[in-house]
Amino acid sequence: MLKCDFIAEDLQQKILSNHYKPNDQLPTADELCKIYGVSKITVNKAMTELVHRGLVSRKRGVGSFVNRMGSASGRTSSFDWKDATLIEGTKSHYQQSGVKVRSVVHAFSVIQANTIVCDALGINSGFVYYICRSRFIEERPLQTEYTYMPISIIPGLSQEDVEDSIYQFIEHKLHLSISSSHSTIRAVLASPDECKWLGVSFNTPLLEVEQTAFLGDGTIFEYSVTRHTEFSEPERTVKLHKRKSG
């Protein structure tokens, strides 16, 4: 086993055994070099692997922190994906199959992040985009999304981008690499607004996916809650245990 793989496995076990708890700051690169007797290059490779697994996030100029494995809202009736997921935008996914995707934007604004959003995004304070939109495939209701993104990380997002594809804007216009996500899945009842937007009856169960998404360098760029209808296939929008080549 390579040294970087050994370090990643050792730190993962310490995280899963609660030696390092959610939101704990991990030892610095210099400290890890001394602990494991390796170079910074080896430590960086190990930390990058932990980021890809969804266990760790990096905060610029601060350090590396353990991700929460559960819900940011504190609800416990959920299932946690403890493996990293690679993600792609809804529109990109369905366009590959020649399926038409349409978005209806209910809200797009800049707000001051509250405590829950700050915690999920790994920031102390600041302004974020708030986006609420519903997606349709071939005019069938697919999902309603509630999304928060730090303006400092995703600058220049427009109404046109929100109506089209946010992920394509991030990758093609900002030239940022979207890497992985950590998701919590649960069943919830549709709200009155969701009943209207998605054309479902009162108290219809929806599949909720609460997600924190990461750029290639481990920076958190998105916190979202997406509620899927019976028509949707949310398991196809996240891919488990796969890595993009190149």
Automatic annotation (TrEMBL):
HTH gntR-type domain boundaries? 1-69
Pfam families to which the protein is assigned, alphabetical: GntR, UTRA
Source organism superkingdom: Bacteria
Show the InterPro entries listed in the entry.
Bact_HTH_transcr_reg, Chorismate_lyase_/UTRA_dom_sf, Tscrpt_reg_HTH_GntR, UTRA, WH-like_DNA-bd_sf, WH_DNA-bd_sf
Q: Which GO terms describe its molecular function?
A: DNA binding; DNA-binding transcription factor activity
Concerning SMART domains, the annotation shows: HTH_GNTR, UTRA
What PROSITE patterns does this protein map onto? HTH_GNTR
Carries keyword Transcription?
yes
Record's keyword terms, sorted: DNA-binding, Transcription, Transcription regulation
- PANTHER family hit by this protein: HTH-TYPE TRANSCRIPTIONAL REGULATOR GMUR, MANNOSYL-D-GLYCERATE TRANSPORT/METABOLISM SYSTEM REPRESSOR MNGR-RELATED
Q: What is this protein called?
A: Transcriptional regulator, GntR family
